[in-house]
């Protein structure tokens, strides 16, 4: 696999997606996540781990839609958690976080730490990544061969869901519900796929933080 630690890390993660028998190679590093948040002010706010720049999160030959949906949405996820940590002590912001949390889970729990709230920031991180993609894409992004029927923004959402489905540490089928739960609160998703009003993915009421 070569002598580079970074290259080995990337290849081990990539092998886990392409060959089920290789999943043991990357199980430990996958559990670590794609990024690390730092509490120490002398450190960078967030550090991406080496395999974050491997398929399916990033590839030099991929379209912008795929890369922004992959590493882009995960970077936005990290930034949204930093946003949560920075503002949770503010009374107004804390109330907004709790309202969105209760809206999405239909619960009244007052547990509001970064670990428990993190998954409910996905609509925000998806929108952030999509807006970054839109700013980058000036109509020049190409369609993927074999998936020409998907517009670039449709491909963005398909790829964003895919990177949630390929996590080897999760049980089968979990990502399906995870994608639906997050994407139904993103109006841009229903706009991209022209979902009928009132359907599951285009509800009359969405849980929005901003």
Automatic annotation (TrEMBL):
Database matches in InterPro entries: MetalloPept_cat_dom_sf, Peptidase_M13, Peptidase_M13_C
* MF terms in GO: metalloendopeptidase activity
Q: Which residues form a coiled coil?
A: none
The domain of life is Eukaryota
- Which GO terms of the cellular component aspect does the record hold? plasma membrane
Gene Ontology BP annotations: protein processing
Domain Peptidase M13 C-terminal residue range list: 126-209
Per its UniProt record, what Pfam families does this chain match? Peptidase_M13 (PF01431)
Q: Report the protein name in the record.
A: Peptidase M13 C-terminal domain-containing protein
Q: Which organism is it from?
A: Amblyomma americanum (Lone star tick)
Lineage start: Eukaryota, Metazoa, Ecdysozoa, Arthropoda, Chelicerata
